[in-house]
Amino acid sequence: MFGSIKNYQQDSNVVSVDFDQGQVKIEVITPSIINFFAQLTGDNPNSKAVENLHIQPGAVETRMFDGKVEIVSEKLRILVSDDFTVDIYDLDGKLLCADYRGEDHPFIRRGGGQGLELAEQEGHKFDSEKDAQAFKIKKQIFGDTYFYGLGDRTGHLNKHGYRYKLWNTDDPNPHVESFETLYKTIPFFIALNDDTAYGIFLDNTYQSIFDFGKENSDYYYFSAAGGNLDYYFIYGPTVRQTVGGYTYLTGRTPLPQLWTLGYQQSRWSYTPEKRLRQVAQTFRKEQIPCDALHLDIDYMDGFRVFTWDKNKFPDPPKLISDLKKDGFKLVTIIDPGVKKDRNYPIFRQGLKNNYFITDHDGVPYVNRVWPGDALYPDFSAPQVRKWWGRNLRILLDQGVAGIWNDMNEPASFNGPINDDTQFNNDGHVADHREMHNAYGHLMAKATYEGIKAETGKRPFIITRAAYAGTQKYSTVWTGDNQSIWEHLRMALPMLMNLGLSGIGFAGTDVGGFGFDCTPELLARWTQVGAFTPLFRNHSSIFTRDQEPWAFGKKTEAIVKKYIQMRYRLLPYLYDLFYQGQSNGLAPIRPLLVNYQNDHNVYQTNDEFMCGDNLLIAPVVEQGRISRLIYLPKGDDWVDFWTNEIHEGGQYVVKNAPLDICPIYVKAGSFLPLYPVQNYVGEKKIDQLTLDVFSFSDDGTNGYRHYHDDGQTFDFQKGIYDLYDFIQEKTGKHLKIKIGYLRNEYQPAYQSFKFVLRGIHPTKITVDGREISDDDWHRGKDDRIVVDKGTQEIDIDLS
Ligand code: GLC
Fold it and tell me: Average pLDDT for residues 5-10, to the nearest whole number?
C-alpha cells in the first residue's frame, strides 16, 4: 500500500517517513507509547478518545540503515520497513511485536454449494469476510499469546481465536459467545506473551474488525472501514503498565460521589409514583441498604425526554425531596431520540437551531425509537452538547441526582440509520459511518459537562454505548443481559475486560434484565454485584419482581447480607477509585494483573481481584455448593469467613452454600471498613475500622487510605486526608504504624479500630504504653481502638 521507503525526517519526537506512495508519521508520546499514523482520508479531525494529551517523549534517536528507519526511544526500538511494516523490540533486543508479511490466508471453509444454501434456508448463519476494509494491519502471533480487552465482549477473558466487529449495536437477542457486535466500541487490546505485555489502541471510530487468530493462527489483525490509520503501541512489560499507558492516553475514571458506590435499585419501570414510594419504604422497613432508585422510560410524557408524565408523577420535586429525606437519590433515564412533535419544545428548539443529524441534503433525519418517529441530536456539535447540558437542568433543578443514558448506539427501530446522514463533528462534517461509534461517547460527554456545570458535584452518569475514553465521563453497564446462569458466568470476563479497557466504573444488571430471575440466581448475582463498582439490580418490563425481597425471606436474608457487606467495604472501594486516578486500573481485574508471573491465571474466568487485597471466587453455576479455587503464587491467602490461611500456588476446595461467596484476603492486608448504613451519609463516621490480615511468616506491607467529602471537587484543591497503615511482622511480633500524610479534610476520623483477624496478642502497647482491657476487646478476632494521632502499635503474639 505504501511502497518503498524514500527518506525520513525527525522533528523532535515526530519522525516522518516518506514512501513511494505517501507519508506516515511516527510519534513518540512517551518512551513506552508510540503513535503510528497515516492520513488516508482528506480530513484529520481531533480524536474523540485522546484529549489534552501530555507528550513526554524523552530522548528519541533516529537513523536509516539497510533501507529501514530505526527509531529508538528510552524504552523501545522501532524498525520501519517498506510498505510501512513495523517491528518493535525492547532495549534488550527482544522482539515484542512484528508485522506479518504474508498475504491474507483465511482458514479453508469446506462445504458450500447446495449444502450451504440449504443450511442458510434453515436459518444458520455463516461468517463472512466481506466487511469493507480501508486498511488491515496484520501482526504475527508468537506461540502462546493471550489477548484481552475490547471492552465488554461476550465469551471468555482470553480472546485468542475470536473475531469481533466494533459497531455499536443494540441486539436484544440473548448475548452469546459468538456475538461479534455489542453496544460499545473500545478498540484497545492487550497481548500477553511469555510474561511480556503490550497494548494496541486503534483510534478510529469507523466500523473496525479485531481478529485474534480466527482468520489464521499465524497472525492477528485489526482493520477499519474508513478513516485514518492511527494506532498506538503501548509497551508494558506488565499488564498493569499497559493499562496505565492506555489510560494515560484516553483518560482515567474520575473519583465518583461516594453514594454512587452504594446499592441501586431499578426496573422497567417503577410507575406510578406510589409504586416507587412503596419500593423505597420496603428498603427502609427491611433495613436493606439502598442509595438510588432509577426511573425507566415510563416516567416521561409519551417518552418525550426532559418531561414528566403528570398523571403518574404529579409533583416530581415533592417526590424527590421526600425520597431524599429517606436517604434515596433518584436517577432518571434519558434516551437521545427526540420525539417528532410540533407541540414539544425540545423538538422545536432542536429543529429551529439545526441540532439534529440530517440526511445528505440537510433535511433532519427521522427514524423510530420508543417515542415513535424521533430525531437524533448531533452530539458531535459543541452547541448541541451545550444545549443538551442545559436541558438537563429541567431534571437536576427538580432534584434528580444522576442520569442514565440509554439507546445511544444509537438504536433505531426502523432499520439502520443511513450511512450518509450528516454530523457536524466539531466543524469537520462527517457521516454516520464515521460518527456512529462515537455517538454514545459524545452524549456522555454532553451529559457530564451539563451536570458538572449545573451542580458543581461529581456527575453520575450511566451509559450503554461507549467509545474509548468514555471512562472520563460516565459509568457503563453491559446492557440487556438475561436472568440466566450463563450471563452471570459471563459477567465476570466482561467486567474484567472492561476494566482492562480503561473502564473502571462498570456493572451488569444484577439478577439479569430479560427473563425471570430465580431465588438462587439473585442470591449468587448479588454476591458478584457486591464487589462490582456499579451495583444495580435492574430488570425488564413483564418480568417478575426482582427486588431483594421478591423471592422470600431466605433469599432476602442472603441478598441483604451482601448488600450490607458492600456498605462495609465502601472505604475500600473508594480507595480503589482514588488509586485508579493515578494507575488507571479498575477495581475489578483479572488475577493476571496482580500475578502476571503465575501463568496459571492467564485464563481465569471465574475468579477476580477486587483491588490488590481481595480475591473473589463467586459461585456462578446453578445448584453448586462448593467450588475449586485457584489461589495465585507469591502470596498467602486468608479465608475471609474462617481466617484459615492457605499458601498461594494451589487449588483449594471451598464449601459455598448459598449464603457463602468465597472471598480470600491477601495475607498482609488491611481492609478499611465502615459500619453498615442504610444509605451513604446516614451515620456520621468518625471511626475507621481496619481489619488486619497478617502474614503467616515475616513480612511488611502497607495500605494507603484516602478520605474526603465524597461529593465535590474540593479534593482538587487539596482538601482530603491521606493515611498510611503499615504492618511489619517479625517472628512473634507485629508492629502497626500509622502515617498521617495529609490532614486537610474535616470532619476527620477521631479514632481507628483494628480488628486482628485470627491474631491473638499476649501484649499490646500503643506508642510505648501498654493498653488496658478497656481498649482491648478479646473475642474471635481481638480488636483494639486507638485515637487519631497514634503512631505505632506493638503487638506480641502468642
Ligand atoms: C433498553 C435498556 C434497558 C431499559 C429499556 C427500556 O432495553 O437497555 O435497560 O430498561 O431499554 O428503557
Answer: 98
Q: Are 398 and 320 in contact (CB under 8 A)?
A: yes
| Cell reading at 410 | 444509537
Q: Does residue 434 have a pLDDT over 80?
A: yes
pLDDT at position 520, please? 98
794 is catalytic: no
Per-residue model confidence as pLDDT tens digits over 180-239: 999 999 999 999 998 999 999 999 999 999 999 999 999 999 999 999 999 999 999 999
Q: Please indicate whether the domains covering 588-665 and 686-796 agree at the CATH topology level.
A: yes
Give how far Cα 76 sits from Cα of 258, 291, 312, Å: 41, 48, 62
State mean pLDDT over 668-693: 98
**DSSP secondary structure of 309-372:** -TTT-S-HHHHHHHHHHTT-EEEEEE-SPEE--TT-HHHHHHHHTT-B-B-TTSPBPEEEETTE
Whether the CB of 782 sits within 6 Å of ligand 1: no
Dump pLDDT digits (tens) for 87-108: 999 999 999 999 999 999 888 8
Q: Indicate the helix (H) or strand (E) that contains 119.
A: helix 113-121
Second-level CATH architecture of 1-109+129-250:
Sandwich (2.60)
Looking from the CA of residue 335, the nearest atom of ligand 1 is 12
The per-residue pLDDT for 565 is 98
The set of residues, in sequence order, having a beta carbon less than 8 Å from that of 113 and lying 6+ positions away, is: none
pLDDT of residue 132: 72
Nearest to 422 by CA among 407, 434, 438: 434
Record the cell numbers describing residue 762, joined without a space.
499476649
Q: How far apart are CA 756 and CA 780, in angstroms?
A: 9
Atom index in ligand 1 nearest the CA of residue 333 equals 12
Tell me if 273 sits within 8 A of 314, measured CB to CB: yes
Give the model's confidence band at 465: pLDDT under 50 very low, under 70 low, under 90 confident, else very high: very high
- Ligand 1 centroid–CA 441 distance in Å is 18
Residue 713's Cα: distance from chain center in Å? 22
Q: Grid coordinates in use for 119?
A: 443450511
Determine if ligand 1 sits within 6 Å of the CB of residue 479: yes
pLDDT in tens, 402-418: 999 999 999 999 999 99
At 567, which helix (H) or strand (E)?
helix 553-568
Mean pLDDT in the chain?
96
Give the residue-averaged pLDDT of 282-298. 98
The catalytic residue among 211, 273, 296, 480 is 480
C-alpha cell at 700: 511488611
Ligand 1 centroid to residue 256 C-alpha, Å:
24
The pLDDT-based confidence of 128 (bands split at 50, 70, 90) is: low
- Specify the CATH number for 686-796; select among 3.40.720.10, 2.60.40.1180, 3.40.50.150, 3.40.640.10: 2.60.40.1180
CATH of the domain spanning 588-665: 2.60.40.1180
Positive/negative CA dihedral, 232, 233, 234, 239: positive
List the beta strands (DSSP E) in 533-686. 536-537, 588-589, 608-610, 614-616, 626-631, 636-639, 645-647, 650-655, 663-666, 669-673
- Of 180, 296, 406, 556, the active-site residue reads 406
* Sign of the torsion formed by the C-alpha atoms of 759, 764, 766 and 767: negative
Pocket test for ligand 1, best of 294, 333, 403, 543 (most atoms within 8 A of CB): 333
pTM, 2 dp: 0.97
Say how many C-beta atoms besides its own lie within 10 A of residue 23's C-beta.
16
Q: Would you identify the CATH topology of the domain 258-581?
A: TIM Barrel (3.20.20)
**What is the three-class DSSP state of 534?**
coil
pLDDT of residue 489: 98
Report helix, strand or coil for 476.
strand
**Which residues on neighbouring strands pair with residue 188, listed in sequence order?**
201
**pLDDT beyond 90 at 794:** yes
